[in-house]
Design a protein that fits this description.
The complex is a heterodimer. By secondary structure, chain A is an alpha+beta fold. Chain A contains five helices and five strands; from the N terminus they run ααααββαβββ. Classes of the chains: A alpha+beta, B alpha+beta.
């Protein structure tokens, strides 16, 4: 999908919600125009939107925006996961790791191999440009 | 035996390192160490025998090179290394509790009854090295909250102004430390177990303890002096690694001309700080002087399976304040799946030293 087509799809999808549409387009512009971009956090996305549109997204809208831009047919962003241990060491997690942890309700610690039941607080979510993004 | 072996592996080997071995040998996987152990123990017949062989070799290598702090020693007198090898070849390994159960770990009760000095456990010789392996008992302290309800009724008034009482408890752990004496013209290596983020002072203490024991045993075997060796200063390697293209820099501590003290880390295994946009721009506009560096490599084990050995030279910014302080005698070599991984890292060090 070219940037132009992508923008048209977003404008059509959110024709009745101008602010949300502008927020999505601000993120799309940023992802398209930034070189060597590999790690966006929720905090960064909120700042991109605020800097470009002056819109201060609510927590709920921020989550909705990322979920929308991660959709398979748009693939502007893709979600990634990391585990942060007690020594602040970061370990990448695959989607399979997360699915299994949710299924079994526990995640093995990457170093000790002990099972962590309340693992969700130790998982960090980030976003990277989707595979079909042209820059 | 297989159960004991798996327990000892889980004590010392990072789960992510064990998983690489599991994948490369196509052994049963598990979700966490407990399930992994259960799935391997469920193997029968040939598959079980083969798994035990693979895991034994892996574990023996982990004792030699897994999660170590390493000090390199150069001989200052020709032939001293050979004398050392001769002296140790003559040495009888005294009977002791750790030696009897080696290479496995001792139960906690047996560990607590041991002296604090290292115990010689084994000597492994191959074509290139004589490895002298010690078992050491060292302690960590942990802070534990004492529930206010545990305070005796008669003493409660004394603690009425306290919201929280914290006690410091000693936690003993067994370590395997290795002195590896090469038969070629390379430095002698002291490798002490250094799991997690072991403080520098504890590593120094562990190295000194092993050195003392080495010379005590050497003296018994007829060696006269320990002054024929000098530690290799690894501090100059920090600059050399940063300026080279070896591996991917995953951690860098540096100071800037404008007074900044910075620490930067890269999240992903293959990402190299040298190529990060922010770091590149910053280091082009201001001179930086590194004092700490972490570098890791990708080594192919099989299709889409890589080991990621890491080297950390953990200098501190204050070491840059005087030339006499630019001394760093240990580095950490971590996440090695095999002896080859470790040798790969040491070869990189050796190339940069030379």
């Amino acid at each position: 999908m070219t940037p132009w087509v992508l923008k048209k799809v977003i404008e059509t999808d959110w024709a009745e919600q101008a602010e949300f549409c502008a927020a999505c387009l601000a993120v799309v512009d940023y992802v398209h125009s930034t070189q060597e971009l590999s790690h966006l956090t929720f905090g960064k996305i909120r700042r991109i939107v605020k800097n470009e549109t002056k819109i201060d997204l609510s927590e709920r809208d921020l989550v909705s925006l990322t979920a929308y831009l991660c959709r398979d047919d748009l693939s502007v962003l893709q979600v990634g996961f990391e585990f942060l241990d007690e020594n602040e060491e970061i370990f990448p997690l695959s989607k399979e790791d997360i699915s299994r942890a949710e299924r079994e309700r526990s995640l093995p610690h990457p170093i000790t191999g002990d099972m962590i039941e309340d693992f969700k607080d130790q998982i960090l979510i980030f976003f990277e440009p989707g595979e079909r993004i042209e820059r | 035996m297989l159960a004991d072996l798996l327990n000892s592996i889980s004590v010392r080997t990072p789960y992510l390192v064990m998983n690489k071995l599991i994948s490369s040998k196509e052994l049963p996987t598990g979700h966490g160490y407990e399930k992994l152990k259960a799935n391997i123990l469920a193997l029968k017949g040939e598959a079980r025998i083969s798994a035990e062989q693979d895991l034994t070799s892996f574990y023996e290598e982990q004792i030699l090179v897994g999660e170590k702090a390493v000090v390199l020693l150069n001989q200052t007198v020709d032939g001293f290394r050979e004398s050392l090898i001769e002296a140790f070849r003559e040495l009888e390994i005294p009977e002791s509790t750790p030696q009897k159960i080696f290479p496995l770990y001792l139960p906690q009760a047996d560990l607590l009854s041991l002296e604090d000095t290292p115990y010689l456990c084994s000597m492994r010789e191959d074509e290139q090295y004589l490895n002298v392996i010690f078992s050491s008992k060292r302690f960590f302290t942990e802070r534990v909250e004492v529930p206010l309800s545990d305070i005796k009724e008669s003493e409660k008034d004394d603690y009425s102004g306290y919201d929280e009482i914290v006690a410091v408890r000693r936690h003993y752990q067994q370590f395997f430390d290795v002195v590896s004496i090469p038969k070629s013209d390379s430095p002698i290596e002291i490798r002490v177990d250094a799991p997690g983020l072991m403080p520098k002072a504890e590593i120094n203490r562990a190295v000194e303890q092993i050195e003392r024991e080495l010379w005590r045993l050497g003296k018994n075997a007829g060696l006269e002096t320990s002054t024929h060796l000098e530690k290799v200063n690894l501090f100059p390697l920090i600059d050399k690694i940063y300026e080279s293209s070896t591996g991917s820099i995953c951690e860098l501590g540096f100071v800037t001309d404008s007074g900044g003290i910075k620490t930067a880390r890269m999240r992903r295994i293959a990402d190299d700080l040298r190529n990060e946009a922010y770091h590149k721009a910053g280091s082009e506009s201001s001179e930086i002087v590194p004092f700490r560096i972490g570098v890791r490599w990708q080594r192919k084990m099989a299709d889409e399976l890589f080991s990621n050995p890491e080297l950390l030279i953990p200098g501190k910014f204050q070491q840059l304040s005087a030339p006499s302080k630019e001394k760093q005698y240990h580095c950490a070599v971590k996440r090695c799946v095999s002896l080859e991984d470790y040798r790969f890292v040491l070869d990189k060090i050796s190339q940069l030293i030379n």
